[in-house]
């Protein structure tokens, strides 16, 4: 069914204010007081030996020239994790040296948050963007959740605020609201239920409503609308990484190699999805490649995910149209080390907002179960 309408901040007048990403802070006195000593970051034969098994995992995507710069950080981070009793969660879009060499758990944002509830460690270091760290905190209120760079934002999450949701509810009274997990805690607290790109249709239909407000990704909304008879009112948000792909680009890949398989994320515009052989969430895309083992595949999503899959499946030739997420790339090995040494940047959420947001996330999780 076609989208019933797409709204944005301009529809609610000039008083509307956009959130600005918080700046990275100087060290506080408390952080200095609890700091651990800086480990040696020299490339030595001992570091080479201790990290050799990790290099095996990534040698297809990280050159031997780069490794001596990364390995000392990797060794130090893996040792500090034990000292701090910390667990590292890494999103599929993190670079291979993080995803394959220091992360304890990798996956999409929801997988990470759910897995985090099962670990015993008191500290979670979230290698991803800020809304993901917030989701981990929402589901793990008693744990310390750290993000190595608090400026790691997201164009989708910053496209909408809790105040926008309240205005939408005023304009469409009684219409239930579904929020993609790529939203701030403030927004999650104002909606009825959350969804991911893999369960969006099921979540929408579970509400048994003829019309639903679906936010903030207009392209995911259009994809979902093509799969359901529920009328959708959408928001003008977009992922700055996925909206850069074009159908023309995909046709060029196919013309160059008619046997190539093309798989795309539903945050891409409709003309891109129309050209793809398969559309699915990051987890679904990875499983598709694992199961089908195509000779050659183009992954239409963030670039590092293709690198991570390439490291895992060296027999599949990955064509990497490189659209990097600048927010994901703020997370680096030196910043993860810094996070563990000083226990920063801690993610905090107002307890009332966290409680309301938890209800929206848990409603989705319970639906899944
Ligand atoms: S890839 Fe897109 S949706 Fe994911 S964090 Fe970056 S801007 Fe947000």
Question: Care to describe what's here?
Answer:
Helices cover 41% and strands 14% of the residues. The chain has 369 residues and is α/β, with parallel strands linked by helices. The strands form three sheets. It has a five-stranded parallel sheet, with helices on both faces. A four-stranded parallel sheet has the order 3-2-4-5, sandwiched between helices. Helix 2 (45-58) packs across helix 3, helix 3 (67-84) packs parallel to helix 15 (333-342) and helix 6 packs across helix 16 (351-368). It starts with a strand and ends with a helix. The mean pLDDT is 93. Iron/sulfur cluster binds at residues 93, 129, 154-156, 182, 239-241, 302, 325, 327-328.
Q: List the uncertain runs.
A: none
Beta-strand portion reads 5-15%
Q: Strand-and-helix sequence, N→C?
A: EHHHEHEHEHEHEHEHEHEHEHEHEHEHH
Find the structural class using helix and strand composition.
alpha/beta
Overall shape: it is globular
What keyword list fits this structure?
single chain; 369 residues; alpha/beta; five-stranded parallel sheet; four-stranded parallel sheet; 13 strands; globular; binds iron/sulfur cluster
């Amino acid at each position: 069914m076609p989208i019933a309408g797409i709204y944005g901040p301009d529809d609610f007048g000039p008083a509307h204010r956009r959130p600005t990403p918080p700046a990275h802070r100087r060290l506080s006195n408390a952080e200095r007081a609890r700091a651990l000593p800086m480990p040696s970051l020299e490339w030595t034969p001992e570091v080479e030996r201790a990290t050799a098994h990790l290099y095996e995992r990534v040698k297809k995507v990280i050159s031997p020239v780069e490794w001596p710069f990364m390995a000392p950080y990797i060794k130090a981070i893996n040792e500090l994790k034990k000292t701090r009793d910390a667990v590292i969660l890494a999103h599929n879009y993190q670079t291979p040296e993080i995803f394959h060499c220091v992360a304890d758990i990798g996956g999409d944002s929801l997988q990470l948050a759910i897995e985090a509830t099962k670990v015993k460690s008191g500290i979670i270091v979230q290698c991803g963007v800020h809304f993901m760290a917030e989701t981990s905190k929402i589901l793990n209120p008693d744990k310390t959740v750290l993000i190595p760079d608090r400026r790691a934002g997201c164009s989708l999450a910053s496209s909408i605020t809790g105040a926008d949701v309240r205005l939408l509810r005023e304009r469409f009274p009684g219409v239930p609201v579904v929020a993609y997990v790529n939203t701030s805690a403030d927004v999650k607290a104002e909606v009825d239920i959350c969804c991911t790109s893999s369960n969006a249709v099921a979540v929408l239909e579970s509400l048994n409503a003829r019309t639903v407000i679906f936010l903030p990704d207009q392209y995911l909304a259009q994809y979902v609308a093509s799969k359901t008879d529920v009328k959708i009112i959408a928001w003008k948000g977009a992922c700055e990484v996925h909206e850069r792909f074009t159908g023309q680009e995909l046709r060029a890949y196919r013309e160059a190699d008619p046997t190539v398989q093309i798989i795309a994320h539903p945050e891409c515009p409709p003309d891109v999805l129309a050209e793809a052989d398969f559309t699915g969430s990051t987890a679904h895309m990875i499983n598709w490649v694992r199961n089908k083992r195509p000779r050659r595949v183009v992954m239409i999503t963030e670039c590092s995910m293709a690198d991570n899959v390439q490291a895992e499946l060296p027999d599949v030739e990955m064509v990497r149209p490189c659209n990097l997420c600048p927010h994901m790339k703020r997370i680096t090995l030196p910043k993860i080390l810094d996070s563990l040494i000083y226990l920063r940047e801690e993610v905090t959420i107002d307890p009332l907002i966290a409680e309301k947001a938890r209800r929206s996330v848990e409603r989705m999780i319970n639906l899944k179960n």
